[in-house]
Amino acid sequence: MRERAEANLKDAEETVKLKVFRYDPEVEGKKDPRFDTFRVPFKKGMTVLDALIFARDHFDSSLTFRHSCRQAICGSDALFVNGRQRLGCKTQMSELEWPVRIEPLPHAEVVKDLVVDMEHFYDQMESVEPYFQTDELPSGEEQKQTRENREKVKMSTRCIWCSACMSSCNIAAGDNEYLGPAAINKAYRFAMDEREGEAMKEHRLNIIEQEHGVWRCQTQFSCTEVCPKDIPLTEHIQELKREAVKSNLKFW
Ligand code: SF4
Ligand code: FES
User: Fold this and answer.
1) Which site from 136, 180, 195, 209 is most exposed, i.e. has the minimal number of CB atoms within 10 Å?
2) How many C-beta neighbours within 10 Å does residue 197 have?
């Protein structure tokens, strides 16, 4: 394996150095966090995920990270690369400064190497009831949405549950109960869907208006900046704040 790697490195026109965070709480001698350096052959079009896969397959099979689709769809390989949350499979090595520093997502517990515990993130997503609900029982007919309404929620539907936004958010880092940008965006996706009806919209606004909901957002835009699907998260959070105010004013 290592010989094959050395041959690859010798043939390569260019090589790139990776500094990769390592931590394995279950193995004696590897319990202290450290950075390992790997030199991998650079190829045009190479992503951070490609480089990690090369390092794992040729140098250290215990190097652990999540990945699946390799096309920015499954959301499993959000990493902290050169000090910013990014998807490994969507980030070109050529766009980064070298050596490339790769760490697990900040503000989440590290399970091993680059793998973080996603449980809390999923709990927050679950708490906003991230599924379509309506009082009207399906009649067997298609529940049609207007073109305008589809346009309105379009960007919010693009979320791939990668957690990059949550990891970048200072408020979430300081308040573990804060719903976080992804969960609020998910609430937006359904609260703004006219097919759910007014009563359900009220219910959804009640959820996001809670103490650790939308009002915690301080419009720092860090979530919007890192979202790999370009979802205007801060904008959606502000719109829900306005909707919540309007809804409360109705009863005065
Ligand atoms: S909103 Fe964007 S950054 Fe946040 S989980 Fe969804 S895709 Fe990832
Ligand atoms: S591997 Fe699926 S999003 Fe990157």
Assistant:
1) 136
2) 14
Domain containing 219 equals 119-249
Q: Which of 50, 74, 81, 86 to mutate to test the pocket of ligand 2 (most atoms within 8 A of CB)?
A: 74
Same domain, 36 and 151: no
CB 229 within 8 A of CB 185: no
Please work out whether the CB of residue 52 comes within 6 Å of at least one atom of ligand 1. Answer: no
Interval 91-126: pLDDT, tens = 999 999 999 999 999 999 999 999 999 999 999 999
- Judgement on whether residues 77 and 166 belong to the same structural domain of the protein: no
Pairing state between β 100-103 and 15-22: parallel
Q: How many domains does the chain have?
A: 2
Nearest-ligand number for the alpha carbon of 228: 1
Q: State the CATH number of the domain containing residue 131.
A: 1.10.1060.10
Dump pLDDT digits (tens) for 161-173: 999 999 999 999 9
Pocket of ligand 2 contains residue 115 by CB under 6 Å: no
Strands 15-22 and 34-41: antiparallel
